[in-house]
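hey so u asked for the seq, here:
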Amino acid sequence: MRILITGANGLVGTALKLALIQRGDSVQSLSRDPNQKPFWDPDMGLLNKQDLEGFDAIIHLAGENLAQGRWSSALKKRIRESRIKGTSLLTNKLSEVKQKPKKLLCASAIGIYGDHKDDIVTENTKPAKQSFLSDLVQEWEAAAFQAPSGIDVTCMRFGVIFSEKGGALPKILTPFKLGTGGMLGNGQQYMSWITLDDVISAIIFLLDQQDATGSFNIVSPNPITNAEFTNTLGKVLGKPTAVTVPAFAAKLLFGEMAEALLLCSTRTIPEKLQKLGYQFKYPNIEHAMQHVLK
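ran it, structure tokens below
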């Protein structure tokens, strides 16, 4: 297949590009560097329609990191615009392309669901109300589904991605390796997680499916509580996990971001992905951590 990727230098994009090339696909990256081709600048609305011609699929991963720090008004604006502007520019330009791709796979997030305590969350669960993250994801996906008729659109709702190469895990590991790791809040909030290996395999699986349209939860089938994660990570590292970060302290440090990403309980399962027959490589958290940390 001939595939175009945005966000190809990120954690997922780097690994995905390598995996696609290794299996024999022709892969190009849509770059924000004006010295590279093909080039785009979503902020300025710059994208040459000729650079979208002739691809079998486009995988859109570009977007500002959600977990880079406290959500100030300025950061929330950057997060939103990095997703909505880029996705809208892409789908609008695709309407001008003569030889359109058959598929558009767009990154998304399980943050659309909000806090559901212990309840199981599937793709049929309604979005949260009056939430920055949920509103963002709904608008983001809506922009993706504006792609022209004839292009199959798949939105991939990622959970927490575990990899030693980046994302949340390296930040989490530092206190745990020092023996000062522990639960966040009461530890009962559910984490919906997935290894980077399964993320890449799931994207390629969806890429190859004929009828994989709509939104898909890209998470392990076994969500865990923060307490279970804490105990497992301590066990794998051979470190104590007695320290607890109270919820109020997390909120003082990170504000709204703490409530949305660290203390929110979303017990998400990948119902649609499993119905299509995807087999997870690392569905169990202990085996996943042993693999990731080697």
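The first strand starts at residue 2 and ends at 6. The mean pLDDT is 94.
lmk if thats what u needed
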